[in-house]
Amino acid sequence: MATVVMHKDFQADLKLDGSLKKNAWDLLRKLSSSADSSGLNLKIPQGAIDRRVRVARVNDNFRAVLFAAGTLDEATYVLVAIKPHDLAYQYASTLKMQVNPMNGVFEVLKSADAAPVAEPPAAAPSTVESEPLRLPFQPGELIALGITERIAHRAVEVRDDDELQRICVDAPSWQGSALLDLAFGASLEDVRRTYTALGSETDRGTAHEFGRGEPDAEQLRESLRRPGSQMDFVVFSDDEHMRRILEGDFEAWRVFLHPEQRSVAYHPGWKGSFRITGGAGTGKTIVGMHRAVFLARRSDVRVLVTTFTRNLAEELKRQLAQLAEPEVLARIDVRGVDQLASEVLLRAKDRRTTLRGNDERHYWQRVLDRVDLNEADRQLLTPDFLSREYVQVILGHGVRNRDEYLKVSRPGRRVRLNRLQRARIWSAVEEFERQLSLDDKTTFGKTVVEAAEIVADQRTLDTHRYDHVVVDEAQDLSPAHWRLLRGVVPVGPDDLFICEDAHQRIYGDRVVLSRYGIETRGRSRKLTLNYRTTSEVLKFATGILGDEKFLDLDEEPDSVERYRSLLRGWFPVRRGFRNDTEEQRFIVQQIAEWRAEPGEPGEIAVLARTRTVRDRFARALRESDIPAVIVEDGDASTRRDAVQVATMNRAKGVEYRRVAVVAVDERTVPNDFVLGQSAPEEQDDVRQRERCLFYVACTRPRDQLLVTWVGTPSPFLPEARAEE
């Protein structure tokens, strides 16, 4: 059988026109089952600069561009693109396939990049001569890394970020990413190690020296194992692997991992827990999914993949189904962390009804109405304050009585309490739990604590015990959640793989892992390259965070420094209005224009801070005959035929092509009601969570972002850049 290799542009072409998938599948099956190309009717385009390039029929109107390499005994087919008939022949004639002679990375180059440079090109006149060079290297140093001559000579002359980014976008993926790394402070040796070094000692020990001649089959296989090669190419292992990639709807960045992502996802193993951090769109989640599959491929293991909400868990389950074969998936359980706790209690024959957020708040208010408090305490002890104190301190630290609560440390809680206040709070807690017991109800927080106690007592060895646990959106988990997760997996190698971003913490107070028996110091990695969001949207979103200070789960500072993107696109649009009617009319008009462009309606979203605003915009769209679906909390709807309308919270972990974030005024973002429910000492933390929520909303789009408001805009809105 032949080896079939796919370039990420081939997958991108299939995503643009899904009707070609069946025909592409037929072509790939023929290629993989052919001992040679004689019966495939592959055409050589006229004027081709590479004699190995071919064009193959997909259907009457489309052709595949590919390379035929190797020998009759060991044929390799590299699929590069699918294009309309005439364009496919033109495109094929400009391509050259090579193993980079400097580093062994497999590449497909366009004719301009493939041609040698006789003389360095004259530098274009610069309007920023006073700016320093973005890449303070000599062309020869970059060429020695494997950067093509033409790109190297252009890059060392650049003084402008936008021009450097244009060069990076036009370059082969690994070269563009390497140049961007160098511009952000990486050394030449860092780049060489990241993109060109083979991963295993076995590979390194048998590595070939690559010259400019045509590689043999073994050299080709080795080249495709290089980290830089795997950014653009995937080698199909069998028909099932081929089917999952072709039928899936992954973005390319979910399949073709960056070397930094791959080195973490496929690391042979750590001595304990490992933590990966990074901003929105840097690929933390997909690294976690690849890691789960890697661990589950070991025999006789059970892997738990968990996250903060059930709807996110459903999305993770969908992603895993496209990454792993059925026998591997059978070894992976995917659960929201509260869902996991409920299952533990259900197995323990506990059938109490769990209160939802607003219902729990009403219970706390009823308690406060019955407790004797002075005016100062009533200002402090709001339902929200008591709920957080209950979850973060009392449940989180396993406090069982009044004396323990009077002594317990309250890390992460801004409000200092004296003994008398603590005593009053404990009285409120006792009344709260008494009411729950009378009504045969419980809370999510209490459910998690009781589940943690059950697993700690080893009463669930048969059902809720795992060899490895992968945690997504870890920054939002409570102390009780961590006690539960620590209990379901024994301390040992690769026990917990934790994905977090302190800038997306929108629930609860900050947690420190070491307080719950989870140590990751010295075992962590930060991702800084954004694969989903354009550079323009990324700069807008990071501007929302301002000068806020953030700490990660190990109490280390977490910043957005060095966050970058290779993607270019439209600048975010910001627009203010005099009244709600004008804002709604504008949004309806904009959504109608977006729907008229290529793509599915379900890739468009309208996001709002509150349900009231969400519902108002959903009505406005429907009244204008624009199909719109309200995405509820816990809803895992994947409808693609209607515009998605959701709260900012519900958009967590989801991505869209185009996003309108609406009603971003000074009283809604941050939300006046939420601020009013918090104690003065907690205001800074609450405002930071509100800021993070706005950041989450504005990092959902891949292509376009629109932000609107009525009256005075939110103070979180970053200043407009001169070029916007």
From TrEMBL:
Binding annotation for ATP: 278-285
EC number: 5.6.2.4
Signal sequence interval, chain numbering: none
Domain UvrD-like helicase ATP-binding: 257-534
InterPro entries assigned: DNA_helicase_UvrD-like_C, DNA_helicase_UvrD/REP, P-loop_NTPase, UvrD-like_ATP-bd
Keywords: ATP-binding, Helicase, Hydrolase, Isomerase, Nucleotide-binding
GO cellular component term, pick one: cytosol
Name of a matching Pfam family: UvrD-helicase
Protein name per UniProt: DNA 3'-5' helicase
Organism: Saccharopolyspora phatthalungensis
